[in-house]
Amino acid sequence: MKPQDPFEKIAMPGVKNVIVVASGKGGVGKSTVSANLAVALAREGYKTALFDADLYGPSAPIFFGLQDQKPEVIKEGEHEQIIPIEKYGVKIMSIGFFILSKKSLIWRGPAATAGLVQLLSTTQWGETDFLIIDFPPGTGDIQLTTIQKLNLTGAILVTTPQHIALADAQKAADMFHTPLIQVPVLGVVENMSYFTPTQHPDEKYYLFGQGGGEKLAHQLGVPLLAKIPLVADVCELSDSGKTIFSSADHLIGDQFQQLAQQVSQLLVTHV
């Protein structure tokens, strides 16, 4: 049998843009950005999908309130195809749909990357303008396999204003700029940028520092796509399967809608 070429691309007919959302460290809200960017793009009228590539800590089923859902599996000839679950206009696929929520996924690197490739290649994405891929933190096997196996349009880096988050985001950027990889960084999203009390909408409190996103974007020569504020009910909404567009504070929803518009304008020739 002919050995599989590790650099052979996965065929994704109908998928126009594949954008990875990455960070160098956990805890910066990368999955929140991924999920709500996908929803915002769908609200702009684009056919949108979200792939949760964090195999060891999948969060998409929780973010979309789909913990008890199982995707439909259909037979096409000798091959099986998985139909992604759709909610809020977004087609969603995650390993979390196939494992119990309280069970850990104990896979070594080769098994994890094989599972990643199987999920990506057997999901029936259909006509899709934007496929958003939520990377796990870091620069390991999952990231490298995704880069090898997909024709990526670009990457979005998520950071908070903190110095340590910027340092780790810089490492993620370095991965995309490596000569053998060369994935364009589309821009930077600064999450938890500031806090504005509902009662005092003109006030901003920079709880984690200030200017970090601008600094990183300047260093990379890319735009700062958004400064996402810290809003009190985001965690509660995420835990209950609702998007930030259900927030009583419309400021965060407006920021995500502007982010979606920025991304779509950057890639208008691809849609």
TrEMBL record:
<dbReference type="GO" id="GO:0016887">
    <property type="term" value="F:ATP hydrolysis activity"/>
</dbReference>
<protein>
    <recommendedName>
        <fullName>Iron-sulfur cluster carrier protein</fullName>
    </recommendedName>
</protein>
<dbReference type="GO" id="GO:0046872">
    <property type="term" value="F:metal ion binding"/>
</dbReference>
<keyword id="KW-0067">ATP-binding</keyword>
<dbReference type="GO" id="GO:0140663">
    <property type="term" value="F:ATP-dependent FeS chaperone activity"/>
</dbReference>
<dbReference type="InterPro" id="IPR019591">
    <property type="entry name" value="Mrp/NBP35_ATP-bd"/>
</dbReference>
<dbReference type="GO" id="GO:0051539">
    <property type="term" value="F:4 iron, 4 sulfur cluster binding"/>
</dbReference>
<dbReference type="InterPro" id="IPR033756">
    <property type="entry name" value="YlxH/NBP35"/>
</dbReference>
<keyword id="KW-0547">Nucleotide-binding</keyword>
<keyword id="KW-0411">Iron-sulfur</keyword>
<keyword id="KW-0479">Metal-binding</keyword>
<dbReference type="InterPro" id="IPR027417">
    <property type="entry name" value="P-loop_NTPase"/>
</dbReference>
<dbReference type="GO" id="GO:0016226">
    <property type="term" value="P:iron-sulfur cluster assembly"/>
</dbReference>
<comment type="function">
    <text>Binds and transfers iron-sulfur (Fe-S) clusters to target apoproteins. Can hydrolyze ATP.</text>
</comment>
<dbReference type="Pfam" id="PF10609">
    <property type="entry name" value="ParA"/>
</dbReference>
<feature type="binding site">
    <location>
        <begin position="24"/>
        <end position="31"/>
    </location>
    <ligand>
        <name>ATP</name>
    </ligand>
</feature>
<comment type="similarity">
    <text>Belongs to the Mrp/NBP35 ATP-binding proteins family.</text>
</comment>
<keyword id="KW-0378">Hydrolase</keyword>
<keyword id="KW-0408">Iron</keyword>
<dbReference type="InterPro" id="IPR044304">
    <property type="entry name" value="NUBPL-like"/>
</dbReference>
<dbReference type="GO" id="GO:0005524">
    <property type="term" value="F:ATP binding"/>
</dbReference>
<comment type="subunit">
    <text>Homodimer.</text>
</comment>
